[in-house]
Amino acid sequence: MLLPTDPARLCVPIRLRSDTAVAAAMGRHFARGAGLAMSASAEVALVVSELASNLVRHAGDGGTVELWLEADWLIIRAQDRGPGMPQPEQLFAGREGRLGPLPGESLGEGGPAIRRLTDAVHASNREGGGLEVVARKRRSAGFRKDWP
């Protein structure tokens, strides 16, 4: 596990299930340091936890979760070199009418939670393989969904 050396950027490698809790705690601390309220920082921790859990569950060798600041935004990005998704935006659709998870499946509500807890989110397959999810959360009061 790498510790942050740049106060304006945080990068946490995710390989094990235990890394998700560490990343969530570090994400919450980063958000508080960026000036987000306690409740908004808790939401950032949940988003980081969901993204990290997906890396452990679906990306084979894991990946990274990064946080950094851009003007009024806190950016959260998860990247991996896993198989990617045929339709990456389906990550945020949830179970959509299915009655419940099949044995061994997750509830499938992490993606919709990420969408609800951030101001904007986008998923895309990476060139060369893997998936990238980028979410933005406004650092100050107000609401705007004008990204990307």
UniProtKB/TrEMBL annotation:
It comes from the Bacteria. InterPro entries: Anti-sigma-factor_SerPK, HATPase_C_sf, HATPase_dom. Keywords: ATP-binding, Kinase, Nucleotide-binding, Serine/threonine-protein kinase, Transferase. GO terms for molecular function: ATP binding. Residues 22-137 form the Histidine kinase/HSP90-like ATPase domain. Residues 85-111 are annotated as: Disordered. This is ATP-binding protein. It comes from Stigmatella ashevillensis.
